[in-house]
Amino acid sequence: MRRLCIWLLDRVLPAEWGDHVIGDIEEQRERGSLWVIRQTVAALLLLRGPSRRGDGMLASFIGDMRIGARHLRRSPAFAVTAIATLGVAIGATTAIFSVIEPVLLRPLPYPSPDRLTFVWERDRDGSSDNLGFLTFHDIADQAKSFQYTAVVGRWEPTLGGDLPERVIGSRVSWSYFRTLGVQPTLGRDFLAEEDTPDRKNVLILSYGLWQRRYAGDSSIIGRVLDIGGTPMAVVGVMPQSFDDVVSPTTEIWRVLGYSTTQEWACRTCHHLLMIARMKPAVSFAAATAETDRIMAVTLVLLIAIANVVNLQLARAVRRQGEFAIRSALGAGQGRLTRQLLAEGLVLAALGGAAGLLVTRISLPMLVRQLPAAMPRLDAIHLDTMGFTAVAAVVLSLSLAMAMVSSRRRGRELAASLRSGRRLATGAQHLTRSTLVVAEVALAAMLLAAAALVARSLVKLLDVNPGFDTSNLLSLDVYPVGPRYNTTAATMQYRDRLRDVVRAIPGVTSVALTNQLPLSGYVERYGVIDPDNPPPTPEQVPSGDRYTVSPEYASTMRIPIKSGRWFTPAEAIDTANRVILVSEALATRLWPGQSAIGHRVQFRADKTPTYSVIGVTGNVKHTGLDATRALAFYIPERQWYFADNTVKVAIRTASDPASLAPTIRRAISSIDPSLPIIRVSTMEQLIARTTSQRRLALTLFGAFAIAALLLAVAGIYGVLAGNVAERTREIGLRAALGASPREIMSLIVGQGVRLGVLGLLIGFAGGATLTRYLRTFLYGIEASDPATMAIVISVLATVVLAACALPARRAVRIDPTEALRGD
User: Fold this and answer.
1) d(CA 154, CA 130)
2) Which DSSP string do the residues of 630-687 spell out, in sequence order?
3) What angle do CA 484, 490, 495 make, to 5 degrees?
């Protein structure tokens, strides 16, 4: 863009000014493209004189642009309206496109990304699930379609040192980076022989962590770090450009280090995510569903084009006398066309500049609405020279063509010149009416989408999550390090934590668990009835594992449907293990029977077994819209191992956020070296699970409001123009006895007809748009009658509002004044 501007200035400006302006642009290379464009436009419009290349067509065209700028100054209402319309449309479009392009449309930043795929297990009901290690082991060993396979597990280590820090990490199989097709920029990749239980303590750092924590020290390779009290060696650093789209927030990786004999490496322990790279000879259809989200961007841009073209058409009628005089003085069709094109370009340039300003304001606001875990957030930037340039060119050409098509033939221009009246042809009326119908149709589509998402969100927030979300605070603590190398030490810390938090005034109850519903963490294990095992391991239902303290059910207020909760004495009895299952899991394992008294285990070839003593209500674990509710609850001391993840659920008597600082201090007093993270209320956790729907509502709602305003402006412009053009006709009707009610019905009826036609077309086209919204809808169909009634009511209101002022002006026309001069 800088080179293009310099070339244009060199061709057009006088030599004495051109060298100065071009030199200034070349020296200010740190300035952005927006500044270069602004300087170029200002120089072309303000600096006059013969160009160094002569007074050719290009110089004449620049002169036409100056004339166009003067016309805009003489019509400030039109200029402000048109520029604002273009600015809002281009700005909103560019902001959305700047998010969509790197996050959804840009190919994955890996070699041959079309050969990468996720691999899931299928449950008996057809739902997808993560894999157990043994299943991955079999696939990696036997599958012939894959070049590489890898699994990823969650890991949140604590970096030791003077300032302990909790970071987001991933446990990966040794082939993870080979599957993605990337290599470390410093050091080396993991080795196959390191992916074993006794050699797994090796690390690869992200570029950001290497710079932030270790100041980019190249001697980091081979250095042994304290990771939660365990020494681990750094073997590599990933490139700065590496983007882990599988786990976007990961800053450190270690090898998985599983063996087939470990309890948590079983086939039914579904806590690993599998990816694979297909061999070159194997192909599959690329997914395209994500591109549906750009639909709203296109619709708003189309509405803006239609509205500004309508403004130009109405203005063309007022300028017929000017065109007639210029034609009579010898201006040919080409000269007038060039003038109109220049004016369109000036308007589009100013609208584009306004759009850039809107984008700079709206893009940061939009990014703040995105989920923090969304991939490639760092890649989002203001894409001004791409989409904005295209939008400006499309708009300018559309405006120019509309202006050219509005010109009168020579005979009509002469008639206009003789009569001094504005003459509007049937073709112009048809064009303007068609554009208004299109605006209403597009507005109806966006309004329907926004209404559907809004009603769906309301229904979703009314869903019972299976526990009481009020006055509930959650936080994470990780007791790791030399002090907690034994189960006894870990359990002692947990008991101490409960005691200090429970003693805080305002805290009514405290419970500990390995995971909380709606927290984003998922850990599942297969649950087997040893008295009636399934024929194959793949048919074993997997449930969300909750290892909890005795106060968990009362703190979360999860209802007990049958049986009972375990007592504190049972919680520490490792000889007689007990378990509670959710209603959904009980129905799955023992349909038509009582679950109480049945036994379960987690590996068919392993003991111990657990006796079912109770059935709980179903809890929404992964989201309010989740249909899966298989879960089980085990006393924390009765699981195979002590979890180093301690999630604390705290019930308070009042606002839990106000107690958060006090709770932090109390927990830190036990062991200040342990970081406390993810402090949030349950309402905040729920808001995160609905963030995508809220984002969709924000986008469609903003677009719908913009579309409605543009549609109102379009209808008003057409009717106001018609009233001005039909002043004598309306005056004659009034003189012949037409009542104000009849005159008002004449004008309002025209607007209503346009609105109804647009609404019908919009509903027909909306069937396509709303089809893409199904993933955002909950408890409502895309063709919901109540939503359609809302859309009709809103559009009817705005159409009548747009008709009111022109109709009022028509009623007030004085027949004597209107007919004077005929």
Assistant:
1) 12
2) -EEEEEGGGSSS--S-EEEEEEESS-HHHHHHHHHHHHHTT-TTS-EEEEEEHHHHHH
3) 140
Residues 6+ apart with CB under 8 A from 193: 199
Q: How many other C-beta atoms can be found within 10 angstroms of the C-beta atom of residue 113?
A: 15
pLDDT at position 388: 53
Is 76 a residue whose pLDDT tops 90? no
Residue 351 Cα distances to 45, 395, 768, 788, angstroms: 16, 9, 30, 34
Instruction: Provide the whole-model pTM.
Output: 0.64
Residues 6+ apart with CB under 8 A from 816: 731
- C-alpha–C-alpha distance, residues 103 and 108, integer Å: 9
Nearest to 511 by CA among 613, 635, 614, 669: 635
**Six token digits for residue 568:** 């504190």
**How many other CB atoms are there within 10 angstroms of residue 141's CB atom?**
8
- 768-783: buried (b, 16+ CB within 10 Å) or exposed (e) per residue? ebbeebeebbbebebe
Closest CA relative to residue 274, chosen from 166, 147, 140: 140
In order of 2, 19, 25, 40, 55, the CA distances from 10 in angstroms are: 12, 8, 12, 11, 13
If DSSP codes are grouped into helix, strand and coil, which group holds residue 790? helix
| 599-638: pLDDT as tens digits | 999 876 667 899 999 999 999 998 888 888 899 999 999 9
Q: pLDDT at residue 383 above 50?
A: yes
Higher pLDDT, 19 or 384: 19
The first and second tokens of residue 215, run together, are 């100041």
Specify the length of the chain in residues: 822
Nearest to 597 by CA among 572, 578, 582, 571: 578
Q: Is 165 exposed, middle or buried (0-12, 13-18, 19+ CB in 10 A)?
A: middle
Distance in angstroms (rounded) separating the CA atoms of residues 84 and 488: 68
- Can you read off the two tokens belonging to residue 529? 């009835």
The pairing of strands 202-205 and 230-237 is parallel
Q: Can you tell me the distance from the alpha carbon of 638 to that of 646, in angstroms, rounded to the nearest whole number? A: 15
Tokens, residue 358: 């809107």
Better-scored residue on pLDDT, 43 or 341: 43
Which token pair is 782?
């895309």
| Residue 593 burial class via C-beta count within 10 angstroms: exposed 0-12, middle 13-18, buried 19 and up | exposed
Distance, CA of 451 to CA of 788 (rounded, Å): 9
CA–CA distance, 630 with 618 (Å, rounded to integer): 8
Q: Are 621 and 655 in contact (CB under 8 A)?
A: no
